């Protein structure tokens, strides 16, 4: 079980009870996760009765990064993008305290589980459900791209899926402006991201562009359909080599993926950016066409 972050008592955070701490006007409850830069807690507003559900999330910069300029920039960008770009498939930032000794942001608690967990539980996702979820993530990315941002970390762990199938793209801590160096942030974590990184970001230029998010979404789509990654190497150097040189494996026949879906997926995973769909708008249009095609096929089969 994940342990509570006892380092929170070191600045503006005060102990409330043995299991809760205070950060500004928020009661921090259960620790959800601890990332490279931040700790994420379920939270409720200060003064609420203890039996009220903790239906907010507070992401606070870890104490060992409070003096790190890159870490502060990351949480500042997350606040900027999340507070001023509203979209139903993109996690919003409700409140930001960036000048605090421990900068933090507040978000609504999303109902559901990560797409990563969905894949682990299901093994693979049916074609109609996959297309629906991928389109929703693409819509969130389209909104970011229209505002001049690239998400830069599209993967199943950063998509929350509700019981009714609504997908929300989360974790805006590593968003980048278009044409910015992928490695401009020297503390960017690659351990969980490397299997999803577009090949152009692994070259000497390392400049971000919307096509890079399309590639990462393609890797995610492949994993949804097959239940495993196309480049599942143990060594980071081998993963990099696979992204740069190797073609993804053919889809298993048992998955019954239509040729039209596989064709789009292979375009999304093209090594060259010019061979991928040229915008999220184009990708969304094609996903909608495939959703309609999939629905018609199911209706014909049921007739």
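^ structure tokens above, recovered residues below v
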């Amino acid at each position: 079980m994940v342990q509570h972050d006892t380092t929170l008592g070191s600045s503006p955070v005060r102990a409330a009870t043995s299991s809760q701490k205070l950060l500004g006007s928020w009661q921090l409850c259960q620790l959800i996760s601890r990332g490279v830069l931040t700790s994420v807690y379920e939270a409720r507003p200060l003064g609420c009765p203890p039996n009220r559900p903790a239906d907010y999330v507070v992401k606070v910069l870890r104490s060992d990064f409070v003096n790190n300029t890159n870490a502060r920039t990351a949480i500042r960008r997350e606040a900027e993008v999340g507070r001023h770009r509203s979209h139903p498939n993109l996690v919003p930032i409700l409140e930001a305290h960036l000048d605090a000794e421990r900068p933090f942001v507040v978000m609504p608690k999303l109902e559901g589980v990560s797409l990563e967990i969905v894949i682990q539980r299901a093994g693979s996702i049916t074609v109609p459900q996959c297309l629906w979820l991928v389109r929703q993530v693409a819509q969130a990315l389209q909104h970011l791209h229209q505002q001049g941002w690239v998400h830069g970390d599209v993967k199943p762990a950063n998509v929350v899926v509700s019981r009714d199938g609504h997908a929300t793209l989360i974790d805006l801590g590593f968003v980048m402006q278009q044409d910015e160096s992928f490695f401009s942030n020297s503390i960017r974590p690659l351990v969980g991201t490397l299997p999803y990184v577009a090949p152009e970001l692994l070259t000497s230029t390392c400049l971000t562009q919307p096509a890079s998010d399309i590639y990462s979404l393609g890797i995610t789509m492949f994993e949804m359909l097959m239940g495993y990654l196309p480049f599942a190497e143990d060594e980071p150097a081998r993963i990099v080599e696979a992204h740069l040189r190797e073609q993804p494996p053919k889809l298993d026949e048992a998955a019954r993926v239509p040729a039209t879906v596989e064709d789009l997926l292979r375009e999304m995973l093209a090594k060259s950016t010019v061979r991928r769909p040229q915008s999220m708008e184009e990708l969304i249009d094609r996903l909608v066409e495939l959703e309609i095609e999939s629905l018609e096929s199911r209706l014909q089969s049921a007739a």
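Helices lie at 69-84, 115-122, 127-146, 210-226, 236-245, 259-268, 280-302.
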